[in-house]
Write a structure and sequence with these properties.
It contains 8 helices and 29 strands. It is α/β, with parallel strands linked by helices. Strands 17, 18, 20, 21, 23, 25, 27 and 28 form an 8-stranded parallel sheet that branches. The chain has a 7-stranded mixed sheet with strand order 5-4-1-8-13-10-14, sandwiched between helices. A 6-stranded parallel sheet has the order 16-19-22-24-26-29, with no helix packed on it. The longest helix is centred in the middle third of the chain and has 12 residues. It is elongated and about 65 Å long.
Length: 379
């Protein structure tokens, strides 16, 4: 196998428990998004569009759907023999085995994959973020600074800063201080959880971290502070585009709505840096003679006979005659029967809202129904 300049390690094992019923049966990166996509489509597409053709996907929680969805990587042009995409779940050896204990431990358990590909640089990614980034630009920034580690950053609202790794930098972007989820942040410059390491340093650091009894084996909590204390060259790469971590039901709904409108905050139609997907090939969407649709994204296989406004419908969704769907997200195979009303809600895969039933309100929190459940009239 030829030496690679940069290999990506995509952390995709998260449960995403704050998404509730949406992740009861699937890992967070496998959750449907935007009608035809899954969340993991975004970082995989970024890799392809950035010229990174070797990607290790580290899975753990309920991985079956994610494994089958990624397959050979063909949908993202990541099916090359010399590289491509590789699924990397936890595994056992003669000396035992365990689940990934943290983000750093996940990579540590797969150092053999890195050593096999022998890259100069390693890109660490999260599988549950929505954004469009040219990693080549970030890599060039890393080289220009002769950095040991480069962290992608962007300013966040001050009231949210305590949710992130926060750093202070000098005028050249060199990191002077890094604190993971501080109670009283001194800055609002937040880590996006996207890192580029010089490979030799990363491997050495992870080997040391693995035997440190005081470590939680986390990049933000352990590895970065340790490198900073050692005086290594840590720099930031400032990102100014659209980026969301859809960690809650409310953020999932809000980010989905960002795809709508004549000038959406995130444009999925652009041919520059396209978002690729391995979604099912289905017949075109069908609109009945009484169908009304406004400001929506509707995937193939959907059948619309009622009224749908400001909503996102995945493939094979059915909206019956006289039904009303407003500000809602319907995942694959969901059905809203005749005369039913769904407002400010998220319906999981194959949910059925029976005829005449009502779900949700614009004046209440987002209603969420888990995969395969049934909403009956009068409930």
């Amino acid at each position: 196998m030829s030496k690679k300049e940069c290999v990506a390690m995509l952390l995709a094992g998260g449960q995403g428990s704050r998404l509730g019923v949406l992740t009861s049966n699937v890992a967070k990166p496998a959750v449907s998004f935007g009608g035809k996509f899954r969340i993991i489509d975004f970082p995989l597409s970024n890799c392809t569009n950035s010229g990174i053709d070797t990607v290790g996907v580290l899975t753990q929680y309920r991985p079956y759907l994610l494994h089958s969805y990624i397959g050979t990587g063909e949908a993202w042009n990541l099916d090359e023999r010399d590289g491509g995409v590789s699924i990397l779940p936890p595994f056992a050896t003669q000396t035992g085995g365990s689940w990934y204990a943290g983000t750093a431990d996940a990579v540590t358990q797969n150092l053999g994959y890195l050593e096999q590909n022998d890259p100069e640089y390693v890109l660490i990614l999260s599988g549950d973020q929505l954004y469009r980034m040219d990693y080549h630009d970030m890599l060039q920034c890393h080289k220009d600074n002769n950095a040991d580690l480069t962290v992608a950053v962007m300013p966040v609202p001050w009231e949210e800063a305590s949710r992130f790794g926060i750093m202070n930098c000098d005028e050249d972007g060199r990191i002077l201080e890094f604190v993971e989820k501080p109670k009283e942040p001194k800055s609002n410059l937040a880590s996006m959880g996207i890192y580029i390491f010089t490979a030799d340093l990363l491997i050495k650091t992870l080997e040391e971290d693995a035997v440190d009894p005081n470590s939680t084996h986390d990049f933000g909590g352990d590895v970065i502070p340790k490198l900073l204390a050692q005086g290594k060259r840590l720099f930031t790469y400032k990102f100014e585009g659209f980026w969301r971590d859809v960690g809650t039901i409310s953020s999932y709904l809000e980010t989905s709505m960002d795809l709508l409108g004549p000038e959406p905050a995130f444009d999925i139609y652009t041919n520059e840096f396209p978002i690729m997907s391995n979604s099912s090939t289905r017949p075109p969407a069908f609109y009945g003679e009484n169908a009304e649709v406004e400001d929506c994204l509707i995937d193939n296989g959907a059948q619309i006979f009622g009224k749908v406004t400001r909503s996102i419908l995945a493939h094979d969704v059915f909206i019956g005659e006289g039904a009303v769907v407003e500000q809602a997200i319907l995942l694959p195979g969901a059905r809203v029967e005749a005369g039913a009303k769904v407002v400010n809600a998220i319906l999981g895969d194959k949910v059925v809202v029976e005829a005449g039933a009502t779900l949700g309100s614009l004046d209440a929190d987002t209603a969420t129904v888990g995969n395969g459940d049934v909403v009956r009239k009068g409930e």
